Each structure stands twice: as structure tokens, then as C-alpha cells.
Amino acid sequence: MIVKRKIGFPIISISRRYFSTSLIKAKIDILENYAKKNQLHKLRMDDLFEVFKLSKTDEDYKLSLHLLNVYYNFGRNLNTQQDVNLFFIFILRTNQLNEAKDLLKYFNGWLLCPPSNKYILLCMEEFFKKQKYYDVREIFSFVRENSQIKLDSSFYGITIKSMLMLKNHSIEEAIIIYNDSYNMSIYLTNEIHNFLLEHNLYYYHKARCKEETSENIRALEYYEGNIKNIIIRLINELMKNRRSVKMSSKSLSLFAWTHIYFDIKEIINKSNHTLMDVKECRSWLDIFKLSCLYNQIPECYCGPFSELFKDILIDMKEDKDAIKALEYVSIYFKEE
């Protein structure tokens, strides 16, 4: 019985797929017949979008494009934001990601407007899932250069994440995008600040453990500058137009990590804000304990503990404070 069920599901899926394609062909035949008879009042946009919604395969995609071409030949264009959105969703649904990317690059030549931001972001996320990180950056460049698309933090966030996934020069590529968001006065989410800070701290620690060379010294200075700038910006953007705010447990744990190498209080002072809870801490372990406490507060909870920081704490096995910190991780950052 188990074998039959496993075989049965794909057959049903395939039959449905063929049914959809057959239905699309039938609808296209009817609509083309209207066009041939010059019955243009019967070429309704709703019928075109219905075909788009039925489309799932490469064949469906080609058939639907043919129908779109028929509509365009008779003056039925994609004239509204909703029209463009439905067309773009159709491209994504049929898994034509490269076509979606080309549309974002060349839409000015034939569409009234670009797809809405949420659908552009959806396209970028699909490329991210497929680990096509350079494609994410390419789409970001289209967005960045087009005045019809309103820049927002989500575009920067997904692009920074993508750059940090690169095998080579990941930090450098991510920082370029990060600094551009600052120049464009785009506030980033706490999650993105944390993510970039976490990676810079990790690379700093690894560089610190290497042999001292002129190249390595430059790398340490580069990561140090990034770490300090990210913390200052994180605090300023979090505190902007607010009288008080609680830091996330993730941010505090990264502040503790930072304090292992640098004076975190001195860095915080440069932000023109005071974090009283951190100010009262005497050591990096005290700040770490504070992050454990904050992780029990719903509005400060920030998901699982940093795996990169955990690796560093394990490397610091001769340090008594690091051993204590690992014990706290198992207690206060335990996954449900």
C-alpha cells in the first residue's frame, strides 16, 4: 500500500498539470478566434489573467506569452500596476527567474511601471533560496538605478545577506551595500546590523589568531573599523525618535563578544546615546549575562544563539569566563 501511494501522487500531479495545459490551450484558441474575427470587445484582460493563473510549466509559460502577444497586437496592453503585478507573479509561478530578472532590467521599454516592491523582493528571495547570490545583487543594482522603484530596507537586507554568503570577499561586498544604505538614508533592521556585526567579529577573531603580517594587520584594522561603525549605527538607528528602547538579546551577546577585544562602552559613547544596563557591566561576561536575561523578555528575544560566537567560545576553552558563557547558552538560549 505504501508503494502504491508513493507512485500515485506524482501521477495525479502530472494529470493535473496536463489538464491545466489543455485548459490553457482551449482558452487561447477561443480568444485567438475572437481576435481573428475582430471581436475585440471579447478580448477581456480578465481572460488573459485567468490564463496566467493557470500557468505552471515551461509550456504554459510559452503559451501564455503567445496570448499576451496577441493581446498587444490588438492594443490590449498591461496598463496598470495590478496588470504588471499579475504578469510578474505569473513569471515567478512558472519558475522563469531569469525572465523575471530581465523584466526588472528592461521594463522601462514596454511597461508603464515596475512590479510592486513586495514582488521584486519575492523574486530576490527566490534567487537567494537557489544560492544565486550574484543574481540578487544584480537585481539590487537595477532597483538602485531606477527612479521608479522606491528604495527600502528590505532590498538592502536581502542583498547584504546574499553577499555574506559568497565564498570570496564576502565582508567587503556586504559592506559596500551596507554603506550605500547609510548614504541613501535607509534605516536597516536590527537583524541585518546583527548579522553583519556577527560576521565581522568572526573574521576579526580568525585574523587575530593568524601570524602577524602587514596584510593581516590591514585586515584586522578593516574589521575593527567595520565593527565599531556597525555598533554605532545600530544604536543610532534603533534609538532614533525614541525616548527609550530595549536592545535585542542578540545585539547584547554581540556587544559582549566585541568587549572581548575592544572597549564596548567607549564605542557606545560615540553613538551619542547611553545604554545604562551595559554601562553598569564590568566585564564581557557581565554583558553576556545581561543578554541571557534579555532573552527571557518577549520583546527582546532574538531567536537561537549565534553559532559563530559559540564556536569562538569553544575555541576559548582555557578561559573560565568562556566556559561559564557556554553553560549559560545551554540554559538561557535553549531551543524549544
Write up this protein:
- The protein is mainly α and 336 residues long.
- Among the domains are: 20-77, no CATH class; 217-335, no CATH class.
- It is built from 17 helices and no strands.
- It has helices at 2-36, 45-54, 58-73, 81-93, 97-106, 117-129, 133-145, 153-164, 170-183, 190-208, 214-239, 249-259, 264-269, 276-279, 284-294, 307-315, 320-332.
Task: Give the secondary structure arrangement, pairings included.
Blueprint: H1 2-36, H2 45-54, H3 58-73, H4 81-93, H5 97-106, H6 117-129, H7 133-145, H8 153-164, H9 170-183, H10 190-208, H11 214-239, H12 249-259, H13 264-269, H14 276-279, H15 284-294, H16 307-315, H17 320-332
Helix pairs in contact: 1-3, 2-3, 5-6, 6-7, 6-8, 7-8, 8-9, 8-10, 10-11, 10-12, 12-15, 15-17
Task: Give a short synopsis of this structure.
The protein is built from 17 helices and no strands. With 336 residues, it is mainly alpha-helical. The longest helix has 35 residues, at 2-36.
Largest sheet: none
Helix and strand content put the structural class at mainly alpha
Which regions contain 5 or more consecutive residues with pLDDT less than 50? 1-12
CA radius of gyration: 26 Å
List descriptors.
single chain; 336 residues; mainly alpha; 17 helices; 70% helix; 0% strand; disordered N terminus
